[in-house]
Amino acid sequence: MFIFLGTTGTLSQGCFAVSIAVLGVLAYYIRHWRILVIATCIPSLPCLLLFKYIPESPRWLVAKGRVKEAEKILQDAAKENRQGSVPVIVDFKDPDEASGKKATAQYGFFDLFIIPSLRIITVITMTAWFVNGLVYYGLSLNVKNLGGNVYLTFIFAALVEIPSYSITLVFMEYFGRRRSFFGFMIAAAVACFTCMKLQLYPESTMLIASAAMLGKFCISASYAVVYVYAAELFPTVVRSIGLGLTSVSSRLGGILSPLIVAFAEYDKTLPMMVFASFALIAGLLGLKLPETKGKSLPDTLEENGSLKSRKGMLCCHLTVSSLMSISLSVLLVL
Description:
Elements: H1 2-29, H2 33-41, H3 58-63, H4 67-80, H5 95-99, H6 116-141, H7 150-159, H8 161-198, H9 205-233, H10 239-261, H11 270-285, H12 310-333
Helix pairs in contact: 1-7, 1-8, 1-9, 6-9, 6-10, 6-11, 6-12, 7-9, 8-9, 8-11
């Protein structure tokens, strides 16, 4: 199950990379931005019809006390895969859980911050997603400051993501989620720092572009890891809320990225310096997260008790406060 979760969660990112490359091709031929927006929105309309064919998560249904619905989905999956029948879920649950007394409790946003261990996980994953969004989209937009043909550079920066996802699968399988995330984040920081230094020598166009592509390769791999990692960290009862919150953090990083890229008007090396610094902080902070490879996914808040260090919690709060302060300072300066 864990192999499938990591594989499907990672390979799905490949479609995103291909779509970004297609966007570069469309932008090359469609120079008017309004027409480009319409052209990119139209293909997404048929996707609105697919939601009725996507089944609900059985784990979530069981956690909500809707056992019969979960059994029906699993039975249909077993039939489709020609695996015969599956055991009845209710036989494996105690009477209280089977009757839905415990499972029908409603959970919300604030439940992510009630338990200290889950609070640390939430804060760190929010920071990780924020930095991934900032650096990923920042490197995509910063191609205009690297020299050369901006369209070709953008397309190549998208295509370089595809092999990164294959590498991610290998790293997550052999090194786990935490070390993979740390390694890719630190590598992205080093690549951005190297690119920053190379930008002091404008004639080194190929080396600058190569360092930037390496940074994009590493941050894409990190993004793929954090998608799988976050899904395995949050308990089932708040998993959708946790992933929604972290996704919002990522979008905030994406919103801030054009402002960071705008720093190049004052100094072309500034964007890469900011990206390198944020990636370094997020990578080190990720070491506070527990490893999830090969472990059962937590279903309830009580199962999530891996991190209980007050010192670690204080470190998380201080780091996030620092990141938010830096972001606010950037906005005020601009």
